[in-house]
Design goal:
Length: 136
């Protein structure tokens, strides 16, 4: 009998100070984005994340206060992966610049990011479900 363990990451804001929550969140998403709260300071910062690595793809659910996300050319080159990020906005919205393409996603929308390209986004408070798939 094989013991198949699913790799996962869990961040619960209710268990952490605002500073600890931000640091774990920032590290948790650092392979995808540089993340920062939309407002100065960490008072009121809250971010929850449950993500699961299912081998060929990752799936996750997150809930967070308004954020700014940035995927630079340097981060694209450093990660050396070529996935797609597909997100369902359950609540909240994002405005983004994906390698020069400007758009907005609102609750109920599915947004797809090509992680081989740089991008920036700004979100409101949000609840999202994310799927990371290899391009192949």
């Amino acid at each position: 009998m094989t013991d198949n363990q699913i790799e996962y990451q869990l961040i619960r804001s209710s268990d952490l100070s605002h500073e600890e929550n931000y640091e774990r969140w920032r590290i948790g998403v650092s392979s995808l984005f540089d993340a920062a709260p939309a407002t100065d300071g960490l008072d009121g910062f809250r971010a929850d994340l449950a993500s699961y690595n299912l081998g060929h793809f990752l799936i996750g659910k997150s809930s967070a206060v308004a954020q700014r996300f940035h995927r630079s050319n340097e981060l694209v080159a450093a990660t050396g992966v070529d996935p797609l990020l597909i997100q369902l906005y359950v609540s909240g919205q994002c405005a983004y610049n994906a390698d020069g393409g400007l758009a907005k996603g609102v609750a109920g929308d599915i947004v797809c990011f090509d992680l081989s390209r740089p991008m920036r986004s700004h979100t409101t408070d949000m609840d999202i479900i994310s799927l990371i798939l290899p391009r192949a």
